[in-house]
Amino acid sequence: MRILDIFLASFIPVLKVLLLTILGLFLAVESVDILGAEARKHLNKVAFFVFTPSLIASSLANNVTVKSIGILWFMPLNILLTYIIGSALGWILVKITRTPRDLWGLIIGCCAAGNLGNMPLIMIPAVCKERGGPFGNADVCYNQGIAYASFSMAIGSIYMWLYVYNIVRIFSSKNPEVITKTDNIDSTIKSIAERAENVPNSHTGPLLPLNIGCSPREDCLGSPISEGKPKMPFLRRTEQCFQTLASKVNLKKVLAPSTIGAIIGFMVGVIPQLRKVLIGDSAPLQVVQDTTSLLGEATIPTLSLIVGANLLRGLKRSRIHLSIIVGIIVIRYIILPILGVCVVKGAIHFGFVNSDHKLFQFLLVLQFALPPAISIGTMTQLHGAGEGECSVIMLWTYTLASVSLTLWSIFFMWFVG
Fold first, then answer.
1. For residues 59 and 146, is the Cβ–Cβ distance under 8 A?
2. Average pLDDT of span 295-305
3. Of 317 and 342, which is predicted with more confidence?
4. Helices (H), 212-285
5. Buried b (16+ CB within 10 A) or exposed e, 68-86
6. Residue 372, strand partner residues
7. Which of the listed CATH numbers 3.30.70, 1.25.40, 1.20.1530, 1.10.3100 matches domain 2-175+249-416?
8. DSSP summary character for residue 311
9. What Cα–Cα distance (Å) separates residue 262 from each residue in 2, 55, 255, 268?
10. Using CA atoms, how far apart are residues 363 and 342, in angstroms rounded to an integer?
11. So what's the pLDDT on residue 43?
12. Under a CB-based contact definition with an 8 Å cutoff, are residues 310 and 40 in contact?
């Protein structure tokens, strides 16, 4: 009976996600067209800018305190390990399968970044509400689970736009068509130079007087020629370093609404003065917190519908071979979860994670078994490389996630319980 209870506690939440996803897919079909391209775009903006940050801010404000920070500190390190290990495995995959170079960023990103926001926000509360779970009181479990999942979403969002975004950007800029055109131009210039070398010496003078009218300290474009190393004040050099870093990393994307919501939630939860004003039955501004929580409740069903609607694009043909899809599935649903169990077991052994915090342990190992992050599709759209291929990967990985997450959840519940 215990095994049956664990199975139901694991399967029911995944089934709920699957049903919502199927509904989203149905609403996006052309004959229905309720969640068409334009509708998805606007609904995604509402979820991105309103619902998600509201859920994160309200849940963290309610449940995060100074004491809880001592529990949560290991989660950023755990997520970083999922990215590093996944990236290494993704790099091996693109080498083995000989993936086109402009798709390397997509494949490595799918192997590195799991859906650390939407899926935990959907699964953890559902698991807490099921009878027979190993996490104790349902209400306490629900509140803690939302706080843990919200923190997971915030940290995952930061890593996504600092790390995966730049990987996708770097490799998408190396489009084969662009490289071919550049090579053609280089070969043309080279052939012209070779012809010039074959011209008789009597005709090989300079075609243009390059230095006519140029100052000894200026080039032909009027720019001054530097002599030695330019002298620049330290503050100016420091400013240029920060400008260069800001140009390489899209700080606007890093400070996404979900991240800002997490910062606000932490401030309200940790600072006693703000907590007294906003949190609690006697708080003078409790209506603000209640309104924020009400908006946040729309997050989970909205995100599930959007995920299902986006999978419709994966039915189209692309350059993704079966070997690549199988490789990503093996990495995300077999290798990473096994390694995740080892990481969390080691963290418990060395005292990094308290052995009594079962729900926190469950989320840590679950972070290794999640399907690829939906945000990768947004990144491919921004750079115009691998959009169709990303949809195919999402279609297959999220279709198999219902089976994989159910099986791994059963094992993880047994592992932490």
1. yes
2. 80
3. 342
4. 234-248, 251-254, 257-270, 272-278
5. beebbebbbebbebbbebb
6. 114
7. 1.20.1530
8. G
9. 37, 9, 10, 10
10. 14
11. 85
12. yes
CB 336 within 8 A of CB 311: no
Rounded to 5 degrees, what are φ and ψ at 142? -60, -50
Q: Please state the pTM of the whole predicted model.
A: 0.69
In the numeric block, which tokens belong to residue 395? 């279609």
Greatest C-alpha distance within the chain: 99
Token pair for residue 373?
A: 């992050």
Does 82 score more than 90 pLDDT? Answer: yes
- pLDDT band with cut points at 50, 70 and 90 for residue 225: very low
- The three state secondary structure string of 166-186 is HHHHHHHCCCHHHHHHHHHHH
Q: How far is CA 60 from the centre of its chain?
A: 20
Strand partners, 224: 218
Nearest to 119 by CA among 82, 145, 84: 145
Determine the residue type at 389: E
CB-based contacts of 126, cutoff 8 Å, min separation 6: 12, 13, 16, 17
Return the beta strands (E) in 67-219 as ranges.
none
pLDDT digits over 352-411, tens only?
888 788 889 999 999 999 988 877 876 776 666 676 687 788 878 887 887 888 888 888
Contact 258, 56 (CB under 8 A): yes
Domains of the chain by residue range? 2-175+249-416
Phi first, then psi: what are they for 218, rounded to 5°?
-130, 150
3-state helix, strand, coil split of the chain in percent (to 5) is 75, 0, 25
Residues in the chain: 417
Q: Is the alpha carbon torsion for 143, 158, 91, 168 positive or negative?
A: positive
Residue where the block lists tokens 């079909």? 29
Q: Is the pLDDT of residue 121 over 80?
A: no
Q: Is there a contact between 158 and 259 (Cβ–Cβ < 8 Å)?
A: yes
Q: Identify the pLDDT of residue 332.
A: 94
